[in-house]
Amino acid sequence: MEPRPKSFYVLSAFFALFVLFLYGPTLTIGILSFQGEGGGLTFPMRGVSMYWFYDLFEQQAVGDIWGSFRRSIVLGLMVMVTTVVASVMGGLAFRKKFAGSRILFYLIITALVIPSILVSLGVGLLFSQSGLDVHWSTSGFGAQLTWTLPFGLLIMFAVFNRFDKSFEEAARDLGASPWQTIRHVVLPIIAPSLIGVALFGFTLSYDEFARTLLTAGSYNTLPLEIYGMTTNVTSPVLYALGTLTTLFSLLIIGVFLALALLSNRRKARAGSDAGKAV
């Protein structure tokens, strides 16, 4: 076995430092969340226990942790469903050029480069000046869609750009209607990509702060609640909350990855069965 060049070790060390920089803060919060009852917010740790995780489920002096958590879940699901549906419809629409399609495409992409706080301010002002309530389920929902929809549409554009239209032609030749073609041919083929769009929609909504800051109204989402707690809570209970929300995010990612894997296996099995039938 030939010895590895020195560049390999240099690049490996650089990558290790990058990973440490990326996940170090999260690991630090996770470690400090296991402080003993008399522990503080910094090292050295004073004992090791689950005290602050138990305390997290008690009534807190400030904030509404679990109410904000429920709001973030509901809002994330709303954004996820809307993003998936709108992205698929937009991807199908952009398969053929139409008047103004190029301008519309750039308008969609522009939403990604506009500072998030300006989007939040603009949406909040639009709702308040129109006499509408500024609320997390209305203005907050709209502000977050300006963040998630461009990502979903870009994914769908890439998917349909390499989509083999012969599958649709074969379905039409067999007498399938346009809706049947989409339902039984197009959607099953792009299912893994739809799962990716759903993951983007939910996770981007769940941890979005800037675009929700001025559009959530009187009720905070979880990121806003955590930010508010940093000015009042001076115990590791805040770290315990951060650890649990991180684990929840990882759980959601794992669920979506499992769904994508299951979808790929079903597609491979269907292709194998079709080959045997032929």
Account of the 3D structure:
With 278 residues, the protein is mainly α. 73% of the residues lie in helices and 0% in strands. The chain contains eleven helices and no strands. It has helices spanning 6-32, 51-56, 65-93, 101-113, 116-129, 139-161, 166-173, 178-206, 210-213, 222-229, 237-277. Helix 6 (139-161) crosses helix 8. The longest helix has 41 residues, at 237-277. The model has no long low-confidence stretch (mean pLDDT 88).
Q: Helices and strands in order, then pairings?
A:
Elements: H1 6-32, H2 51-56, H3 65-93, H4 101-113, H5 116-129, H6 139-161, H7 166-173, H8 178-206, H9 210-213, H10 222-229, H11 237-277
TL;DR?
The protein has 278 residues and is mostly helical. 73% of the residues lie in helices and 0% in strands.
Described by its quaternary structure, the protein is: single chain
Give the structural class.
mainly alpha
Number of helices: 11
What is the percent of helical residues? over 70%
Defining key terms:
mainly alpha; globular; about 280 residues
